[in-house]
Design brief:
CATH superfamily of the largest domain: Clavaminate synthase-like
Radius of gyration: 26 Å
Bound molecules: N-oxalylglycine, zinc ion
Strand order of the largest sheet: 7-8-18-11-20-9
Number of helices: 9
Distance between the termini: 27 Å
CATH architecture of the largest domain: 4-Layer Sandwich
Order of helices and strands: EEEHEEEHEHHEHEEEEHHEEEEHEEEEH
Strand content: 25-35%
CATH class of the largest domain: Alpha Beta
CATH topology of the largest domain: Double-stranded beta-helix
Number of domains: 2
């Protein structure tokens, strides 16, 4: 048996101390879970920061521990809050880096050698994915940790890609419509609509926000060539940081404009090629040689060559043969990937061969939500089978 925890008031009422963990009064007051302070169910707060006393004024005047709960009374105002001890321990300050499912420490970085063969890539048949929750959870886990998964046996039917996206989120409509066709056109305005190879890239860095998920569904691939490739942009960025930290910093700090313009659209967005969060963790990649526009802005002229050196070093890492996972999409296959991390590519194909993909965009927030709901259902089912 552990001894009973002790809940003490310290620092003249400015802090609660539960054994060795410290909780500032204002932090506790802001997180009061009572029904006057937060909606039951969603936990949505019912007050704003200006409704609370100032942090300098607020003190804890009483604290008690009992039955796994800590109760604290505040002054001024006399509000009482009750916190589960387990909740306080799970939320102790300064213990862990904040979890962010987009940042590199929530990911498993990979290269070609990580996967034994094209048959061992994360994925499932679409029928099983649609029917079976644990298969769907496995695929969404793969999307959020590896940055992709593959579905097989999707109907070889136009627009089926939209049905795939709707199983875990919402289609992001753009100026290209709800979906886009990738096939050879007579006078292509976009490399995608030719039979030429396309080097690894992320799509649409000229949007802000970029579409965070991309799907590519194969309707026909009777061409010689036309193989697909994926590259883990986070792995390459981490390698750049290791080998050449100055180059990494320059790419993380230099705004680059990407633009796409045709008769009916003029889209531009300015952001760095490597996004890092305030803790320095990699959390996004924008890489597209086709839509990159001239560097302008605050980069001093003297640093332009250095920028190009860094850009080139990053590209060389992304283009390493050992970085790229290669596979062939056959009719009915659909690859789903994180467009903020995973670059995609294709090899060139015989100009006469019939190759047709349909693609669409969706977003990671909905996929992450679908994963959380599936996890919750699994935990509740496990709990239910334990208690019954
Ligand atoms: C694209 C693209 C890949 C392919 O259209 O942006 O990357 O396999 N196409 O044709
Ligand atoms: Zn309250
Ligand atoms: Zn693309």
């Amino acid at each position: 048996m552990n001894p009973q925890p002790t809940a003490r008031i310290e620092a003249g009422g400015a802090e609660l101390v539960l054994d060795d963990a410290r909780y500032p009064a204002i932090w506790l007051r802001d997180n009061c879970p009572c029904a006057d302070c937060a909606l039951p169910g969603s936990g949505q707060k019912l007050f704003g920061i200006t409704d609370l006393p100032s942090p300098a004024e607020l003190t804890i005047v009483e604290a008690a521990y009992g039955s796994g709960e800590v109760s604290v009374r505040f002054a001024p105002g006399g509000h009482t809050s009750r916190f589960a001890e387990s909740w306080l321990r799970a939320h102790r300050l300064g213990a862990n880096l904040p979890y962010d499912d987009r940042a590199e420490d929530a990911k498993v970085l990979w290269n070609r050698a990580t996967f034994a063969s094209a048959d061992s890539l994360p994925g499932a048949s679409f029928a099983q994915f649609a029917r079976d929750e644990s298969t769907r959870l496995g695929c969404l886990d793969a999307l959020l940790t590896y940055g992709f998964f593959l579905l097989h046996d999707v109907a070889v039917r136009e627009r089926a890609v939209l049905e795939v996206a709707e199983t875990f989120g919402y289609v992001r409509e753009t100026n290209y419509g709800s979906l886009f066709d990738v096939r050879v056109e007579q006078n292509p305005a976009n490399l995608a609509f030719s039979s030429l190879p396309i080097t690894p890239h992320t799509d649409n860095p000229y949007r802000d926000p970029v579409p965070t998920i991309q799907l590519l569904h194969c309707l026909a691939n009777a061409a010689g060539g036309g193989e697909s490739g994926l590259v883990d942009g986070f792995e390459a960025a981490a390698a750049l940081r290791e080998q050449n930290p100055d180059a990494f910093d320059l790419l993380a700090r230099t705004p680059v404009t990407f633009r796409y313009a045709d008769e009916s659209a003029d889209l531009a967005a300015t952001n760095p090629m490597i996004d890092v969060d305030v803790l320095g963790r990699i959390k996004g990649i924008r890489f597209n040689n086709r839509s990159m526009r001239p560097l302008t802005g605050r980069l001093p002229v003297e640093r332009v060559a250095e920028f190009y050196q860094a850009y080139r070093a990053f590209a060389e890492l992304l283009y390493r043969p050992g970085a790229q996972l290669n596979f062939r999409l056959e009719p009915g296959d659909c690859v789903v990937f994180d467009n903020t991390r995973t670059l995609h590519a294709r090899t060139g194909f015989t100009a006469g061969g019939h190759r047709h993909l349909q693609g669409c965009y969706a977003d990671l927030d909905a996929a992450a939500s679908a994963r959380s709901i599936l996890r919750r259902a699994r935990a509740e089912a496990a709990q239910g089978s334990k208690s019954s």
